TrEMBL record:
One of its GO terms (molecular function) is hydrolase activity, acting on ester bonds. The keyword Cell division does not apply. SUPFAM superfamilies: SGNH hydrolase (SSF52266). This is SGNH/GDSL hydrolase family protein.
Amino acid sequence: MKKPTTSLLSRASAVLILALATGSTIAFAPAMAAPPAWVATWQASPQQVWGSDFLFPTNVPPALRSETVRQVARISLGGHRLRIVLSNTYGNQPLTVGKATVAQPKQRGGVITDSLRTVTFGGREGANILPGATLVSDPVALPVSSLAQVAVSLYLPDTTPVSTFHWDGRQTGWIVPGDQTSAPALKLTKADGTTARPLLTGIQVETEQAARAVVVLGDSITDGATASLDKDSRWPDFLAARLAPHGVAVVNAGISGARLLSDGMGANALARLDRDVLAQPGVRSLIVTLGINDISWPGTAFAPDARRPTLDDLTAGYRQLVTQAHSHGVRVIGATLTPFEGALPGTPLDNYYHPDKDVLRQQVNDWIRHGDVFDAVIDFDAVLRDPHHPARIATRYDSGDHLHPGDEGNRAMADAVNLEALLPGLDAPPADISLKISPAR
């Protein structure tokens, strides 16, 4: 708790003298409860849709028209009301949302009828999202518990180019014809499913008192590239389960292919810091899990002619992230880069690993551990590595591609996070008192 200011102490002294002079008594009473507040509880960081010549398919059509997109998201922290965040970050024309709903989901795109709520924007069902803009909905009276799933349905009546999306949602969604936003069960075909997330980039909840959020800024390991589909088994998902009982939200700002210093499958870390981290309501701590793609992309099919960054390049990028986050009062935790020997065998990226790249990874890890730049460090390298072959992920944690952890590895990463280092005083109850004068008897 902050120390009282001089003026506050002076006023308190004056109150005490007045009470003694008049024979009144002074009663110390708890301060009034803080008003409800909004906190980010879920995120899918926006990415620019790439062209057909890129190594991976987009998994979305080039445009949508008179179609409904229904997506399911598991939030981290619950609340009495929620609101959704839509994005046209990379669009060059306004997008029209004809109708939107939220509900509690059932299997295969269905929702619980009694839970269906229409979402409004400025009191209206329809809305336009300007080029480059985001849109936050009005509050929706749908109480949701921590770690619950929410189904968000968006009807797009006009021709809507898909320019902004999140590529790897690790959750099945559906694109179906017509306005099915209020349909308890979607009319599905085999071609309707997608794991990409168009437009929907955030969910916020209202809590009784101001809640805190932890944002994880990362790449495919954080995005959950090999986590089991529809199982909420990315490592930030497991961390959310640990923090929910403490009233803390976890927001996943991972983008597959993300880099610290360069654009790729998403904008570089500094370019998206404000949007994906600092603008998230309630953010108090940031975990940075970036750098392996900076080291390994150069020379691969992703960046055949790119120059590999130096240790000084990378540490300068980390320092700048920390400086900017600290200027907003956000605590920054650095995570070491995990082993990757033999990564991505039998793929067009089978040269992702090289012994020289691993030397740089270990130099970066040594700096993260001992550089005294981060407020705390999570040693994911030590958690996941094979003790008999430290350049490789331990077999029980390996998804099989020797780069990304599987579900058990994701759980081990989340369990390795020291909650007290993440948010000091996490278990300390709020302590505040105010002076109240009672008439003398």
